[in-house]
Design brief:
The chain is α+β, with helices and mostly antiparallel strands and about 90 residues long. It has one domain. The protein is about 45% helix and about 10% strand. The chain has a three-stranded antiparallel β-sheet with strand order 1-3-2.
Length: about 90
């Protein structure tokens, strides 16, 4: 099987499994690239959220699979290798 097809299949599996999971507003904002971007995604309807508690201070819970579809690309930080003097 071609590598691209395998990657697409794995991504589809991840999104299917996470479709029933929710994530808090702070972590969702960190994944998509900030609070402003999260609010824009919510207003445009690309990301749905649910307010579980009918209270004044209820937590906003976002659908994890929708958040992952809009995640920002991050740079992988490489560890600095230190050489030991011998």
């Amino acid at each position: 099987m071609e590598r691209q097809a395998i990657e697409n299949r794995l991504l589809a599996n991840i999104l299917a499994v996470t479709s029933t999971m929710t994530i808090g507003k702070t972590k969702a904002a960190r994944i998509v690239g900030g609070k402003g971007k999260l609010e824009r995604l919510h207003r445009s309807g690309k990301v749905t959220c649910q307010d579980k508690v009918n209270a004044q201070n209820g937590k906003w819970r976002y659908n994890l699979s929708e958040i992952l579809m809009h995640c920002r690309a991050t740079q992988v930080k490489q560890k600095e290798t230190t050489q030991v003097k011998q």
